[in-house]
Amino acid sequence: MKLITIAIAFSLSISLSIASELTELYKKNQTPTYTELIAHYQRLADTYESARLLDYGKSDSGEPIYLFVVSHSGIFDADSIQAAGLTTVLINNAIHPGEPCGVDASAKLAEDLLAVGVIPNTRVVTCIIPAYNIGGMLNRGCCSRANQDGPEEYGFRGNAKNLDLNRDFIKADAENTKTFYKIYHDWKPQIFVDAHSTNGADYPAEMTLINTVRSRVEESMRTFFSSGMTNSLYRDMIRDGHSISPYYHTFGDTITDGLMEYMDSPRYSTGYTTLFNTMGYVSEAHMLKPYPIRVEATYSFLKNVVVYAQQNSSAVLSIYNNANKNIRKIKEYGINYKLDTTTNLEVKFESYRKKYRISEVTGLPIHYYDKSTRDTNTIPYYAEYKPEKMIRVPEYYVLPQAWAAVKERIDLNRIEYRTLANDTTMQVELYYISKYETSERPYEGHYFHYNTEVVKDTQEVTLRAGDILIPTDQDGIRYIIESLEPEAEDSFFSWGFFDSILQQKEWFSDYVFEPKAEKILAENPKLKADFEQKKKNDKDFAANSWAMLYYIYTNSKYYEKTHNRYPVFRVM
Q1: Does residue 416 share a domain with residue 322?
Q2: Sheet containing 51-58, strands listed edge to edge, beginning at the edge strand earlier in sequence
Q3: How far apart, in whole angstroms, are the C-alpha atoms of residue 187 and residue 234?
Q4: Do residues 397 and 568 make contact, with C-beta atoms less than 8 angstroms apart?
Q5: Is residue 508 a contact partner of residue 553, using CB atoms and an 8 Å limit?
Q6: What parts of the chain have a pLDDT lower than 50?
Q7: CA–CA separation, 66 vs 487, rounded Å?
Q8: Does one domain contain both 296 and 403?
Q9: Which residues contact 524 (CB under 8 A, 6 or more apart)?
Q10: Residue 36 lies in a domain
């Protein structure tokens, strides 16, 4: 990370009046280009002592990712800000550049934060990523979002590698994500907002909100996050004249069936930041509202987040610090949350009447929303998720040095570990992958594994000098478990980082192995009994010579012990 001190040739001469004009572009159904946007922030940084524009490193496009920091304390060192007891809010924009309302809203917010008295923020440090998916923002056009009302031109969802960056926060295929890690772990925000626009249904609300699933929020902070901050932000939006509702994620076929909280697993931005106890939101301005309305609703939400952080700075910091202390004490950790349909809250939701007509194009029925008819219903809101499995937390995980791509991500997330200085023999708990399913097509650059099951074993293994021991007694405990437990839905195993263990390397020739198989059965009565029983119960097995020999082979000393053996070990 470095402070920008060199001139940006394309627009350093921009005047303050022109900078203000940029923040008015949205009213003309326009959004700034990447060049115009960075020039705006550079000018603000040059003009105000309370602002800095920081170059944090590259993106996949080759352009750097910038962080704009507003700190009225005069402190711009992240560690010093934390020591001073200031609250930090991090706002991310243009992760999907076709949804640029946050770009415009944050540009205006930055100006107003720096104008004396407009938004009180002396106890808050506001960090803004002006444009995160720079490659997508540079890929500018008119028409990639066919279901959106404005602006006239905008960026593209995929980044320079055609990745959806809001699926990359664990696997970190993009340089953008690795740079985000630097920003995030430097500044350790207590509150995080990722600005988006919706896709999907039509309804009256200007803004819908995804909050991190409350069941995944550290237990001691749930009430504050849900009943305190989130409810307050809803009230503030309504006070400002903006209609807002929970994100339109339906439980059934119709809105009367209810809504459910969106499960933001760790692949998503807020799912990732929650692993480190940051309280997170995705603002989703409604795509069919005119662009000026979307920007103003987003601006109002961002402003209210900063004001809330200012007014409740001590409480926010206390809740965050307590969560970091408490998370270290857990003995069991839940993974793979599933919706609990036995309990729900209730919300009032205003909707357009959903009707059907015959399509002039297809000649078949198609639904539409009748905006002349509005319904207000009190509907179920399913907000509770329960973990599908509980993991007993080990004292250490062991990562052999061979898995360099995993270690790189461990390092980037500033996870503490100890490197073995000498070869060491150690008794560990380990897993064999017994079952998994794989996507038929690549998903975000990977053939994704899911519904993984494991068999546990205890073995004595030889660890090599250079292998690492990762203690779970640290702030990053949730990241460690979610990424290293193979059954976790967004683990490194799920994303294919350990696929080579799934391929058997040594085999046998049937005519060579058959005499050995006979001897193996003769020397192992239990295996022979199991073998005979399997032949009785499975006709296909009994008719397949190779399958029968392979069964004996896998239960013999000849079968490789490392096939399907997950290479990350647990020390209890």
Answers
A1: no
A2: 2-3, 51-58, 64-70, 124-129, 87-92, 191-197, 279-285, 207-211, 244-246
A3: 26
A4: yes
A5: yes
A6: 4-16
A7: 36
A8: no
A9: 555
A10: yes
**366's tokens:** 């198609």
Asked if 98 contacts 154 with a C-beta cutoff of 8 angstroms, the reply is: yes
Please tell me the predicted confidence (pLDDT) of residue 17. Answer: 52
433 SS3 class: strand
Pairing of strands 191-197, 87-92: parallel
Q: Domain boundary residue among 327, 353, 368?
A: 327
My answer on whether 277 and 140 are in the same domain is: yes
* Domain identity same for 120 and 224: yes
Residues 423 and 316 in one domain: no
Q: Sheet containing 418-419: give its strands across.
A: 418-419, 468-471, 396-399, 569-571, 424-438, 449-463
Q: How many domains does the chain have?
A: 2
CATH code of the domain containing 205: 3.40.630.10
Taking the mean position of all CA atoms in its chain, how far away is CA 208?
18
Could you give phi then psi for residue 443, rounded to 5 degrees?
A: -120, 115
Please state the three-class secondary structure of 28-94 as a single string: HCCCCCHHHHHHHHHHHHHHCCCEEEEEEEECCCCCEEEEEEECCCCCCCHHHHHHCCCEEEEEECC
User: Do 418 and 279 share a structural domain?
Assistant: no
3-state secondary structure of 381: strand
Question: Do you know the residue count of the chain?
Answer: 572
* Last residue within a domain, chosen from 274, 299, 327: 327
Supply the pLDDT for residue 1: 60
Residue-number span of the structural domain to which 166 is assigned: 2-327
Give this prediction's pTM.
0.93
User: Quick one: which of 433, 435, 334, 431 has its CA closest to 391?
Assistant: 334
Residue 500, Cβ density class (10 Å: 0-12 exposed, 13-18 middle, ≥19 buried) = exposed
Q: 337 lies in a domain?
A: no
**Residue 360 domain-assigned (yes or no):** no
The pLDDT score that the predictor gives to residue 253 is 80
| DSSP-derived secondary structure letter, 448 | -
Whether 367 is in a domain gets the answer: no
What confidence score (pLDDT) does residue 266 get? 97
Same domain, 297 and 401: no
